[in-house]
Design a protein that fits this description.
263 residues, alpha+beta, 6 helices, 27% helix, globular
Length: 263
């Protein structure tokens, strides 16, 4: 009789223990699923998505009249005292990655609580851009130190204000510069506008344009944004056609210092 009673008691205790485990596990899972994403989480997601080697090869192969196969290479460079991430960005033709025509620092941080956005992405000129060529391709011990990077952040160029994309859209974050854009004097422009979208799988869409005082677009692609995707696997035919494309020197000079890819 005693043995049966002990057995029943142990079974009940084990049942209670298992139920408790299920309840605790369920509570922890629910907490994880319902945990709100913080402002800094959004900034980290955007910064991580921007980083890496990306190409516009797919877009260029579909519409070669309007888009080139460009390489965008981006990597972390420093962190500011307030936690903002400083990212080095360079863009070059696929065939000549060692000769970037555009170099920038991006500073990524959360929007303030008062603003109707989630993440700010500001672009800055580099004090001595030549010193930073192929920054991301170098071993870390051959790059400028983070404190040197911060000291080389020069003129503020633009700021894009990103919001989380609505449910059902392809993008994760999207945004643009304010309505009036930012001052820009390149190639007859008086101001410029930029758009940025972060998609899944670290795909990034960028669109930069310059306008004169009358609102006429004087530089930048007119058809739509460049679509940069993580390094594609190129077929032999793609590689052969790309190796035989060499942009004329006059074109390279025209776009030097600005993302100007169409008249």
């Amino acid at each position: 009789m005693g043995t049966g009673s002990d057995s029943n008691g142990w079974s009940r205790a084990r049942g209670v223990f298992l139920k408790t485990l299920v309840l605790v596990g369920g509570a922890l899972l629910l907490k994880r699923l319902t945990k709100s994403t913080t402002r800094w989480d959004h900034a980290r997601i955007v910064a991580d998505s921007l980083c890496g080697e990306k190409f516009s090869q797919e877009q260029a192969s579909k519409d070669p009249d309007n888009f080139f196969n460009l390489r965008m290479l981006t990597c972390p460079a420093a962190e500011m005292v307030d936690g903002s991430n400083v990212i080095y960005v360079e863009q070059a033709f696929w065939r000549t990655p060692q000769k970037p025509f555009r170099q920038r620092f991006y500073m990524v941080k959360p929007c303030t609580k008062e603003m109707k956005c989630d993440v700010e992405v500001s672009s800055y000129a580099i004090r001595d851009a030549e010193e930073y060529k192929n920054f991301c391709d170098r071993p870390k011990d051959q790059r400028p130190l983070p404190e040197e990077v911060i000291g080389d952040i020069a003129e503020h160029l633009t700021t894009i204000y990103l919001k989380r994309c609505e449910r059902g859209k392809r993008c994760l974050y999207e945004g643009s510069t304010p309505e009036g854009g930012f001052p820009n004097s390149w190639s007859g422009a008086s101001y410029c506008k930029s758009e940025l979208a972060i998609h899944k799988n670290n795909e990034v869409h960028t669109w930069d344009r310059g306008y004169d005082d009358d609102g006429n677009q004087v530089w930048g692609v007119k058809k739509g944004p460049y679509e940069f995707k993580p390094a594609p696997t190129l077929s032999f035919t793609d590689k052969f056609s790309l190796l035989n494309f060499s942009p004329p020197v006059s074109l390279e000079k025209r776009i030097e210092g600005s993302f100007v890819l169409q008249e």
